[in-house]
Amino acid sequence: MVKNYLKWLWKVIRKPNEHQALKKYMLFRELNPFELSLVNACLHNREYRAGEVLFEEGHPLEVLFFIVSGEMQVTGKLNPQGSAVLKKHQFIGVIDLFGNNKRSGSATALTDLSVLALTESDFQDLISKNKRLGNKLLKACGKFLASYLQDMGSGY
Amino acid sequence: MNWTKIVFIVIILAMVVLGIIFYRPVFSYLIASLVFAYILDPLVTSLEYRRVPRWLSVLMVYAVIAGVLALFTTRMVPMLINQGNNLMALFQYSDKPVSEQVLALPFVRSVFEFLQNIDKQVPSLGFSAKFVHLIETGNQLLGELPKLLVDNYQTILSMISFVITVPVFSFFMLKDKQALRKGMLSLVPNRFFELAVILQDKIDETVGRFLRAMLLEVIAVSIMTSVALTIAGVPYAVLIGITAGVANIIPYIGPWMGAALAVLTVLITGKPLSMMIYAALAMYLVQVLDNNFVYPVVVGKTIRMHPLIVLVTVLAGGWFGGIIWMLFSVPLVYIVYSLVRELYINLKQFRLI
Description:
Distance between the termini of chain B: 22 Å
Radius of gyration of chain A: 18 Å
Radius of gyration of chain B: 26 Å
Mean pLDDT of chain A: 88
CATH class of chain A: Mainly Beta
Strand content of chain B: under 5%
Helix content of chain B: over 70%
Low-confidence stretches of chain B: none
Order of helices and strands of chain A: HHEEEEEEHEEHH
Number of strands of chain B: 0
Oligomer: heterodimer
Number of strands of chain A: 8
């Protein structure tokens, strides 16, 4: 009886991490449950139909997109092959965010697409209002940019 | 033509219109709650980022405000009521007729004697009689204030319900800020999503920053005026200070209202005329400090409008809805103006127009 109560109490105190799925994205891999909950509070669910345009080249960058399901085709100068297909657990917008805040390419949903949208202002808030979280996010952005450069073949 | 879509839009519009009609009586409550929430949001958010749950952050901020208000009520309110009552009593309770009582005040006496002299030389003008009549009319208006309070008990009761309801509404607005934002943005079609995000951020930035700046400005001017008038020896310094602080929100006209109140108080309390100059100097000094140090730092460039437009807006606000609209007309016009500007720029950048 007491054991059952203790088990129940432990369950209540130690909430299961509801936002564990966010760790699948490279940007949020190092975040702890509290930091993930802060990020999750800022994410917007958006659904796109196959063929629908997410953004076009030259548009102002206001949102980072994280793919939950479906596929997205990205075209533009940042892709050496001219275009790339992004899938589940990939994201787009970070490179342009550290550029001139304009979209350097266009994105279209290849299949029905479900994404999480993080606004640029929320991203800035997450970085500036909690130093540890900001540090982790910026480090993850650095890692992502480094891997992008390596993929491009620059290697520096 | 997609008829299903048109019918859906018509139904949504009808629901919005019905909603506006149904919720119209509580609009003022909602707006006041929104203002309150905007002012407190940075404190709540900063606690939330320090691992305090958002609902607890709101309650903690409320507790601090309640504490400050309790301290203010026990220390300041009796003094303010006392100062207010004394000011009123000066005009009301006496065995002598009011006009005689006011005429006994040194400055008023000298003006009355001056007018009597003119009357002696040109009797048909009757300036002194008109002067006495003016004083009596002014007193009559002031004397009716307590009666107005009794007659408007319903208004007072609704004020009390207002004061109780606003923090409750604000609690939910603050606690569920992100959920409310998400809810609003989820209604926006994909094509306009990023544009809606930009506009929402702009509203947040403009309204939030302006309201918080105004609150700090009111507090700063109230304290500076109270201290300056106390040093100058003007009676009822705190009461005048707070009134001048609030009036200061009205651009260009507000500071003059505060100064006029200070000078008039010196006049009617029968203090030496030199104090009138000290009071005016004190108010001028406060304005210099405010305009050169407080305003640029606190309010800064939250509002960038040409002085002529500001003045015209304040006057139009006054004609439209009195003092309250004078207070809010400039920020309201500025917010609408900056939103339209931002909308136009972004519609072009997103190539929607």
